[in-house]
Amino acid sequence: MEKTSSGEHILQPAYVRISDDLRSRIRGGDLKPHAPLPPERELCLDHGVSRMTARRALNILESEGLVYRDYRDGKRGTFVSEPRIELRLGSFSREISKAGRHPGAELLWAEKKPASHAQAAALGIDTGASVVALQRLRRSDNEPLALETTFYPAHILPGFLKEDLSGSLWDVLRNKYAIIPARTVANLEVVVLDQEASHLLQTRQAAAGLRLIRRTFDKDGKCFEYAEDTYRADRVSLVIDREIDE
What we know:
Elements: E1 2-3, E2 9-10, H1 14-27, H2 40-47, H3 51-63, E3 67-72, E4 75-80, E5 85-88, H4 92-98, E6 103-114, H5 117-123, E7 130-140, E8 143-153, H6 169-177, E9 181-192, H7 195-200, E10 208-218, E11 223-232, E12 236-239
Parallel strand pairs: 5-12
Antiparallel strand pairs: 1-2, 3-4, 6-7, 7-8, 8-11, 9-10, 10-11
């Protein structure tokens, strides 16, 4: 039960009270990662609610990424998720390694193509000029976390598509082309994952995602990389760390 600014009590819906209670137990450590939550029938008895109300409470927690559904011993249950992985803007491989996990990248496709208006504007080239484009599925300990779609001006990266693109692209840029990433600027938006993204990221269709529209600049202020990255919102927390403007 909550109070309004005037001190009046507001009775919360039962599914909100149940989800609040379970959320507190998860965040307080009473329910550990991969521990089972009480089944729906038990929640119904404990809280005096219908099966639909109990399921709605669990759906809220699932949408927040705090729990997941799975089968154990032939029965479908709800279990506590691992904590979200915190990532800062920068090299995905390095951020995942700092989190004590093993990074991975699966190249889905790579090609040369004409730049769209948005890609050309970001990279400072003419619309229709040739760009090197690739899409990779990024993993942490074999768990899919993100889809990266990246574009570079083709004229600055001769032979790029013949390189090993399964690791850090920034390491390839440094070592092969002497391009040193110095600054990244990104716009963040919440999106609904489409069927293809949901399948690749192994989450339910229409789940929430985090999309970063990202540009990377060298030490001379030249944008050499434009990317559209889509992360699983239930597994990733993006950390923004910067100085406060006076």
